[in-house]
Amino acid sequence: MTPVFAQRLESALLAVAVLVAFVVTGAGWWWPLVLFLVFDLSALGYLRGPRVGAAVYNVVHSYAGPALLAAVALVLGGSGQDPTWVFVVAGSWGFHVAADRALGYGLKLAEGFGHTHLGRIGKDRAAA
Description:
This protein is mostly helical. The chain is built from six helices and three strands; from the N terminus they run H-H-H-H-H-E-E-E-H. It has one domain (3-127). The chain has helices at residues 3-25, 31-34, 50-60, 64-78, 84-102, 122-127; strands spanning 108-109, 112-116, 119-120.
């Protein structure tokens, strides 16, 4: 098994785990699907050029953001507040990142949108 395949498989399993968590908690399994494209708005950074685009895209497509947001939800819950909506956004965000990685859309390199840490995608893959 290649490292790239292993990363994609792990990401697919994580995406499934997030959906199962939504079903089990009754948070609405459809939320990750409804919010899926919201996180791709980060690609608008490419309007400022490939370096800025890659940086903005990578910040939103890292597991760090959803993990930090889930931690905020835990703190809110621990202080007696209802963290449901924060968990929904964190889980949906994590699902998006995992699904993207499972499909081969990795973190972007500054050379352009088609160059990722998981290999080339789209036209860049066909040209390679």
